[in-house]
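Cross-check.
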Amino acid sequence: MAEQARYEELIRQFSAFGAVKREIGRMMPSECPAGSAAVLTLLGRYGDMRMSKLSELLAVDMSVTSRHVAHVAERGWIERSPDPADKRSRILRLTPAGQALLDQLSRRTCLMLAERLSDWSDDEVIQLTALMARLRASFDDSRSHDARAYDTRAHGPEPRPPVSPVLEQITRTPATTQ
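Predicted model, tokenized:
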């Protein structure tokens, strides 16, 4: 396990990364906030799905997912149709307008990243991508661990690390589509 000072520096870097996210957000069209872009991205990446699956992939409450879905549906970027397997459920799918917007967002984001990271090697970009995916997977994995592992009353002031690292690499960023 890394020393506490390394984790403190990591926390500072997480805070600083907020500036990167804000800059990406500023280049998005005003009618397409980050939550909407995430919905479009996930539907573009994984295809048609139920709202419950989308909520799981977004890692947010169903009420938050419903608001995002309503926003993109009102703009004609997705359609909701009855699920043939369960008429109470809806299947979400991108419309051609939603796919066009998603393509535009992807191009914009890729151009901005290419500009900002122009002095990075391909290997450095690949390494950053892999490490970010691994970080995200570690947080996804932590949900399956017993929540008491992070209860400071039960284990003292330092949280226990996850039992095992997760090798699966998953990303859920609105900037990537495939």
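The chain has a mean pLDDT of 82. Helices lie at 4-26, 34-46, 51-58, 62-74, 96-116, 122-142, 152-155. Passed to J.P. for a second look.
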